[in-house]
Amino acid sequence: MTNYFKVNNPATGKLISEVRVNTLDEIQQALENGHDSFKKWSKVNAHERSRLLRKWSDKIQEQKEEIAEVMTLENGKPLSESLGEVDYATSYIDWYAEEAKRIYGRTIPAATETKRIIVSREPIGLVAAITPWNFPAAMMTRKAAPALAAGCTFIVKPAEDTPLTTIKLVELAHEVGIPKDAIQYVIGDGKEVGELFTSSEFVRKITFTGSTPVGKALIKNSADTVKHVTMELGGHAPLIIAEDADLDVVVNQTIISKFRNAGQTCVCANRIIVHENVIEEFSAKLAAEVMKLKVGNGLEKDTQIGPVINEKGYTKIVEQIQDAVDKGAEVLVGNEYDANKEKGYFFVYPTVLKNVNEDMKIMQEETFGPVAPLISFKEIEDAVEIANSTPYGLAAYFFTNDYKTGTYLHEHLQFGIVGWNDGAPSGAHVPFGGMKESGIGREGGLEGIEPYLETKYLSIGNL
Ligand code: ADP
User: Fold this and answer.
1) Is 319 known to be catalytic?
2) In sequence order, which residues have a C-beta less than 8 Å from that of residue 243 and are 6 or more positions away?
3) N- or C-end of the chain: fewer Cβ atoms within 10 A?
4) C-alpha of residue 195 to centroid of ligand 1, in Å
5) What Cα–Cα distance (Å) separates residue 73 from each residue in 79, 83, 262, 386?
6) 190 C-alpha to center of ligand 1: Å?
7) Is 311 a known active-site residue?
8) 75 vs 209, 214, 237, 355, CA distance in Å?
9) Spatial separation of the C-alpha atoms in residues 280 and 291, rounded to whole Å
């Protein structure tokens, strides 16, 4: 029987498309094809791979408006953010089109005159990717671009909620001449496809962006065939505001960090840790700005906050807010909803909570929603302790103009990404990734191509 995934618009609950689910046999075949095609693609000259990637990027840019609209329809984010994500997605392709030409080896002085030693880098093989719904374009290209640049072949399973953007991007890759089996997508249930990917002898690497529990399962399941793994997992970002911080800058950057994509990003500021002497002023200023954010359908002009992705996400957010309120948090703005289970749409109005403490779920679990909980601190050491107190270590932010405080925070925060007076530190040129249970490996920048390469050395003797 043929199965279809229904793709619904999270802003209205209306069906926008039905996508055919691949059979397990089809997925096995796709893996085999990806493996076979590696023999050819890995031998394509690096300059040619680079040219093809550039063409892919250009093609996506030519269709930027259409792609952004599809993204907003399936993900719900405001159109302006979808347009921004298309740029963000192609920036990875552009970056790795260049890196393809810079995969250098080296020579090592031998221990005797009769030997020479050459170190070379080779593509790892077929890479299988599993991507999330919150950035359906960029999370795919930031894996596909370095993989293809390195000479790996690539297969991706997009999230069930948002397959359309990925399908479109893969089709465009084929249109510009990247071979059909060098980049493929498959559609299926996360767990089933994950198990096929991790158990397949054809797959040499798993790259995943998603939740920490799923990442852990993928790491475990990859052990039997000793696959390489890159894991970009959950985050619970602290945002520390020192006593001397410029509060207008902080409000602006907090809103950028916290409310982008309705708070559904793994680097969203989730725990706002404010010096006790400025918390009154800061919370009033933040609440006044948050009140102005416009909630609505992402296709409508001026919308700043779209719906949350689905009922599961919505329920988690509501439960966290309720738990915080039950335990004494004060609602400065928000804790309002426009949700309709029958129709299938879920809006959470941007919410600011004060008097939050560490016993509340919202301070321990990733939120993935437009909620800013504020907790106060006295000494900077206490702020660091709160910040480091969860198993997560993806992004952290702090605001201070005092270089001693800044240096201390930089050196003591256990996070892979740190923004100092900067709420938007991402980019194709930087090594994005987390410490602790937030992940393994880095994506972007110089580091982002490394996970797709093997190191081989040659020792020539008897000279
Ligand atoms: P979220 O809860 O935010 O949807 P997930 O980690 O569940 O985060 O989903 C991210 C991606 O992982 C999606 O593509 C999803 O289909 C996939 N996925 C979900 N469960 C599994 C699993 N057990 N094994 C592999 N992939 C999975």
Assistant:
1) no
2) 275, 277, 278
3) N
4) 12
5) 9, 13, 15, 38
6) 5
7) no
8) 16, 21, 22, 32
9) 17
Instruction: Write the DSSP string, 266-287.
Output: TTSEEEEEEETTTHHHHHHHHH
d(CA 110, CA 346): 65
Q: What is the DSSP string of 310-322?
A: -HHHHHHHHHHHH
* Alpha carbons 337 and 409: distance in angstroms, whole number: 36
The 3-class secondary structure across 289-311, one letter per residue, is HHCCCCECCCCCCCCCECCCCCH
Ligand 1 pocket by Cβ (under 6 Å)? 130-132, 157, 159-160, 190-191, 194, 210-211, 214, 217-218
Half-sphere exposure (CA, 13 Å, Cβ side) for 154?
A: 28
Report yes or no: 96 and 145 within 8 Å, Cβ to Cβ: yes
**Alpha-carbon gap, residue 259 to 34, rounded angstroms:** 39
The one catalytic residue in 74, 81, 232, 443 is 232
Which residue, 192, 95, 88, is CA-closest to 145? 95
Among candidate residues 234, 221, 266, the one with its CA nearest the CA of residue 128: 221
Q: How far is the CA of 326 from the centre of ligand 1 (A)?
A: 31
Helices 79-99 and 138-150 pack at an angle, to 10 degrees, of 10
Threshold 0.90, pTM exceeds: yes
Q: What is the pLDDT of residues 77-108, one digit of tens each?
A: 999 999 999 999 999 999 999 999 999 999 99
Which of 309, 254, 311, 307 minimizes the C-alpha distance to 278?
254
C-beta separation of 271 from 386 below 8 A: yes
